[in-house]
Structures are given as C-alpha cells and as structure tokens.
Amino acid sequence: MKSAVENLNPTRVRLTVEVPFEELKPSLDAAYKKINQQVSVPGFRKGKIPARIIDQRFGRGAVLEEAVNEALPKFYTDAVNEGELNPLGQPEVDITELKDNELLTFTAEVDIRPAIEIPDYSGIEVTVDSVEVSDEDIDKSVEQLRERFATTTPVERAAAEGDIVVIDLEAKVDGEVLEDGVATGVTYTIGSGELLDGIDEAVTGLEAGGDATFTSELKGGSAQGKEAEVSVKVSEVKARELPELDDDFAQLASEFDTLEEMRADSRTRLERSKKFEQATQAQEKVLDALLELVEVPIPEKLLQEEINTRKHNLEHHQLAQMGLNLDSYLQMQDKTAEEFEAELKEQAEKGIRTQFVLDELVNKEQLSVGQEELTEHLMRRAQSSGMSPDQFAQAVVEGGQVPMLVGEVARGKALAVVVEAAKVVDDKGETVDLDDEEDETGETVEVTSEPAEAATEAAEEPAEPQEKQDKAES
Prior knowledge:
By secondary structure, this protein is α+β, with helices and mostly antiparallel strands.
C-alpha cells in the first residue's frame, strides 16, 4: 500500500491511497463467504456456492463492493498512522479507481489537529482580586444564617413587605382562564420577586380573605409572553420573626458558645473561600493569557459541531430541567438570538482552543495521569453530577468515557504547570502564593497541581441561566 498526504489547509488534509489488488484478497475472500451465507442457488448447498457462480448470478461488482467496504477502514487507518496524523471526526472517502485484479485507489479528506507551537510562557503575569473580608461581609454572612433560623407566625393584619402569604392564583388571557393558569395554596414571600411582576403591589395591604386583580406578562406556560389578567386571593398572612443576635443564637446555629466566637469563625471561613476563589481566578486569567500567546486554527466542521452540541445541551438539558425554552432564556438574559449565537460561537472557539493548547502542553511536558488522580477526579465529577461515585463510574465505563476523563485530568495538570510558572499578583501589587489552599468546605486542595476544572470548564461550558427564575416562572 502507498499513501500520500496533501495539506489542504492547516486543519484539513487529503490522503491518496493506492492498494495493490493482492492486498484486497483477504477482504475478497470474506466477501464471498458472507454472500455465501446470505443467498441460495438451486443445486448448491448454502455456504458451498463456488465463487464463479456467485459472480455469474450476482455480479463481480457486488463482491468487489462488499470487499472494498470491508477493507477501507483498515487501509485508511494504516495511511493515517503512516502519515502520523491526528484526525478529527470521520473522513470523506472517495474511491477514484477500482481495477479488478489490478488496483484500488481512494482519497480521504479529514480534519486534523493543527500543529501548535507552544511559546515560552514563563513571562505570563496576571492580576487577581485581593483577599479582603470586611465587617460588612461578616454581618451579611451572619444575617443569612439568621434568616435560616427565622420562624413564621400567623397574623391578623394587612400583609406587608417581608411577610409570607398563602395565595390562590387564576390567570386569564382574552377573558378565558388558562388550563395551566390556576394555582392554589402557593406560599410567597412579599418582595422576593420570585413570582409575577405586579404581585407584590397586589397583595401588599391585603388581609386573609382579601383579593385583588392585576395585569402581568406571563413568563412561562402555554401563554408565555402574553399579557394576562391575574386574580389573587390571600388565604393566610404570616409574619417572619428573626432570632435575636446573641450568645443563645450562636449556640443554636453553631458549635460555638458566644456570638463573638461565631463571628470569628465566619471570618475564617470567608477568608478561606475568598482565597480559593482567588486561586480559581488566577487559573482562569493565566489560561486566557496563554491562549493569547498561541495561534490556534480551528476546523470549521468541528467548530459547528461544538456549537450545535452546546446549544442542544442548553436547550434540552439545562433549560428543560427548569421548565424553560430558549426564547424565555433569551428574554431572561436580555439577549437577541444573534447575540446568543455570537456568544455561543465565541465560547465554542475558546473551548476548542483550550483543549488543543493544553493537549499540546501535555505532550510537551510529558505529563501522565495516575490511578489516584483519576479516582479523585471521578469523585469530584460524581459529586457535581448528583450521582454516587459507583453510579458515575459505571456510566463512564459503559459510555466509553474513561479516555475523556483522563484527558480532563491531564489538561488540568498542564494548566497547573503554566500557573506555577506565571507571576500572580493581587490588585494591591502583592505577590499571591498559590500553594495549598482550602476550599469553602475546608478541604485542602493543591491549587496548582489539581486538575483545573474551574478554569477549563468555564471555557468549555455555556453560561448557566439565572437560577432565581427556575421555580416560579416554570
């Protein structure tokens, strides 16, 4: 077999392959055997039909076609290996010549990973936010904890902001009650903004048994985007009571005996969280700086497939789980379809460039992935997916995704190498030490050597919808 490689552009090649006919003989024999098992000819037992009879009855061309189809994948693979290519996706194959008992010639066009030159990255310098925890930050943290321990008490008075009301809703469009426009026993906190526009004004001032009508644009359901006349009836008004900020509260809400001790622990936790966020920010900025240094051509077909995949995942997984569609998502984000498509393309391009560059770094630095590293990564991915480690591992193995996980770990290690070589300073000009930090749970993490999922996934995933819209608007 002879093969030649023609570079069509930096990301696409054409292979021309010539195969002597004798190399087709094993596939030709297999083709006769296969046809023998599929057809019947009077006077011959099944599987015992001579080749010349098959040629007469069904044509030599049918046998050659079967043989070539069976042999092409092997010849293509041999040509790829001979040319030391890294193909992306399936090739476009064209049989240019097939002479019986003489020669088979075919071409195969396929996208390939571009050749990437990694420059010296030791001069990368990035600036990140400094770690500062103010008294206001601690007050906010303690207040959030206080909110969790709030109690509610039914009251016989008009509802006010901050109160919890139990309400019944009925929505009409053009005077007709919508099939999905009736809800009873809905609990709502006035001022939270979690339901329809205009509801806060409608229920404020109502006592139990009171009702009101207001107009609002529906943000979900069968009449999404239409103006509706909404009737609301209050069945109960409850006041929220927050616990006093004292030592008794500290003992109720934490393992500490005094409020002062609890506030000190809150400061420690906030500092730890901000340091971890600072490390993640450093990784993201170093990655961006690295990508600016490297020219990465992207195959158009691969880019379009990546865009389509991201869009499908957003529409059919993320948004579907929230009861939203793409139109409502764009409305929430205040974006046009054109802006969304442009943003999606930019994210896809960055994701592909990130993978290409980090994969090249893995090869350049000769990085490998150990079993322990892979297991730790699998545990983190399982936790983020909401599955048990055993369930996640089984799904990964059954889906043939182990190489994908290995690649994620290796790319994280490659980015860590660049982060270690970079100079990181905060916005006050102080050098940032990115040695072992603790995340918000208190678990120690080797920031510069653990897989940098936060940075690489930010480049590879579409933006999440605003969570506050999820329940009420669906």
